[in-house]
Amino acid sequence: MSVIDNWQQWKDFLGDRLDQGQQQGMNKETVNQLAYQIGDYLARQVDPKNEQQRVLSDMWSVADKDEQMAIAHVMVKLVENNSTQQ
């Protein structure tokens, strides 16, 4: 099973990558820009594997760039909060 097949595994994976980036000195602006780029790539290239990813994909497809940046920022906050609660 791929990491993108399961929503919790996907969030854990993103949280781990976020932690690595922050440990290597990435600032919040860089993290958010990278999250936007990943979100854009996923929306264009990867078929959603679960309901949560489908919702994000649908929202991404109707959002303008500023709204997509907001979605990416919220995903960063989600995995930040998820990793601090464990």
From TrEMBL:
Species for this entry:
Cytobacillus dafuensis (Bacillus dafuensis)
Which Pfam families does the protein's record reference? DUF3243 (PF11588)
Q: So which domain of life are we looking at?
A: Bacteria
Task: Give the matching InterPro entries.
Answer: DUF3243, Uncharacterised_YmfJ, YmfJ/YflH_sf
Q: What is this protein called?
A: DUF3243 domain-containing protein
**Gene3D superfamilies in alphabetical order:** Protein of unknown function DUF3243 (1.10.760.20)
